[in-house]
Amino acid sequence: YGKAIVALESTVITHGLPHPTNLKVATRLEEIIREEGAVPATIALLDGNIRIGLCRDELKRISKPESNAIKVSRRDLVSCLVEKRAGGTTVAATMWIAQKAGIRIFATGGIGGVHRGGENTMDVSADLTELSRTPETQSVGVIVLDKNPNFPGFFCPRTSLKAPYHTDSLEKAIDILLLSTRMGLSNGTLIACPLPKVNEWPEKKI
């Protein structure tokens, strides 16, 4: 198409939000990317295949509880494909697939962490580990896209943790990505964007 392609994960659809809110959010995210002049590519597993860029019917399919979609991290890719099950890809699996497909930009609502009840389920995210090695490096650049250097949380605009670099200029963030590519630095770069003020929650409440 001659346009930028933006990868999107699908566990937010299969596991993150209830139906039909999940479908509405997924559809709106794709619309926003199109409005900005790029091409959305929601990634998921269906019928033994990796799907990069879901059509409307496929989005509807994985959004429904009866799809019985499983949560697919990188470790689960092969078994899910062999069993031909529907799978919502996590950040870790999505970025691995996107990188293999030559897609360099990936948007998501959040990464990493130990999920609630993780001491019982052992549901520990592989996102940060994957980001550190996709594509094959142990050096992850971190940029906060804000005037404030503090790293944002999920629902609070900033935490007490400070990023090594911050800027409120999207152009500068893009320049960093482009220069990194030209210099042959293969590390992934995490760009963290605080929530709009209207959506934020107090950190103490969280």
TrEMBL record:
Domain of life: Eukaryota
Keyword tags: Glycosidase, Hydrolase, Lyase, Manganese, Metal-binding
GO molecular function, one term: pseudouridylate synthase activity
Gene Ontology CC terms, in alphabetical order: cytoplasm
SUPFAM superfamilies: Indigoidine synthase A-like (SSF110581)
Annotated protein name in UniProt: Pseudouridine-5-phosphate glycosidase
Originating organism: Globodera pallida (Potato cyst nematode worm)
